[in-house]
Amino acid sequence: MFITFEGIEGSGKSTQAKLLKEFLELKGQTVTLTREPGWGAMGKLIRRMLLEERIMELDPMAELCLFCADRAQHVKDFILPKLKQGEIVICDRFYDSTIVYQGYARRLDLSLVKKLAKASALDVDPGLTFLLNIPVRKGLSRLQQRDEKTKLDEEPIDFHERVRQGYMLIAKNDPTRVKILNAAKDISVLQDEIRSMVLGALNVA
Ligand SMILES: Nc1ncnc2c1ncn2[C@@H]1O[C@H](COP(=O)(O)OP(=O)(O)O)[C@@H](O)[C@H]1O
Ligand SMILES: [Mg+2]
């Protein structure tokens, strides 16, 4: 089963993904936790270009292509083989991030972005996606306690607002896959909600 976490920076994706992995392992499942962008040798280079190198002013189309290149390699070499072995793969950000950041927030042609984002996943779709929804200022204020800052954190508030609204549209159009969670709740309350949905989907207690 393939599970993804989405939401703006500071919404709690990494926190919840890690807790879910630990829980599922206690249940006897084999679980891999991964994230985008940045898997593997190529991904590490791409991540640096996308998120770290402040001297690089990437054109939005270049940015889109880099995210998609990263995903295709990640899926082919890492995610797909694990799914084929029946493992659970949890990914911190996946193609919905490309659709909202490059499509809704950077305002590239939305139908092109959707096509590329999905094509780069090589026909692998998440069975469940948790969307951690939180007011932008609240999410961003949480980042002040975090060491790892990226270029994205420096985008203006309205950029993150477009991201958040884009996510809500995706969830509205695909409610079976995308579950909206109120990310302002306590970490443990959210984790309980996530666990029960995952167990329901896995059909185990
Ligand atoms: N539900 C929550 N309530 C309060 N603080 C939270 C919650 N979830 C996460 N945090 C804290 O907010 C910060 C950002 O969380 P993180 O999981 O790194 O977010 P993301 O991966 O979505 O950017 C961390 O310091 C984390 O401990
Ligand atoms: Mg994170």
Describe the model.
With 205 residues, this protein is of the alpha/beta class. The protein has one domain (2-202): Rossmann fold. 56% of the residues lie in helices and 13% in strands. It has helices spanning 13-26, 40-52, 60-84, 95-105, 110-119, 136-143, 157-173, 187-202; strands spanning 2-7, 31-35, 88-92, 128-133, 178-182. The protein has a five-stranded parallel beta sheet with strand order 2-3-1-4-5, sandwiched between helices. Helix 1 (13-26) crosses helix 8 (187-202), helix 4 packs antiparallel against helix 5 and helix 4 (95-105) crosses helix 7. Bound molecules: adenosine-5'-diphosphate and magnesium ion (MG).
Enter the CATH topology name.
Rossmann fold
Low-confidence stretches: none
The profile of the biggest β sheet is: 5 strands, parallel
SSE order: EHEHHEHHEHHEH
> Share of helix among residues?
55-70%
Bound compounds, each kind once, are: adenosine-5'-diphosphate, magnesium ion
Shape: globular
Rounded to the nearest angstrom, the radius of gyration is 16 Å
Domains (count): 1
Number of beta strands:
5
Mean pLDDT: 95
The CATH class turns out to be Alpha Beta
* Main sheet strand line-up: 2-3-1-4-5
The helix/strand class is: alpha/beta
N→C terminal distance: 16 Å
Assign the CATH superfamily.
P-loop containing nucleotide triphosphate hydrolases
Number of helices: 8
Q: Give the DSSP E fraction (strand runs of 2 or more residues).
A: 5-15%
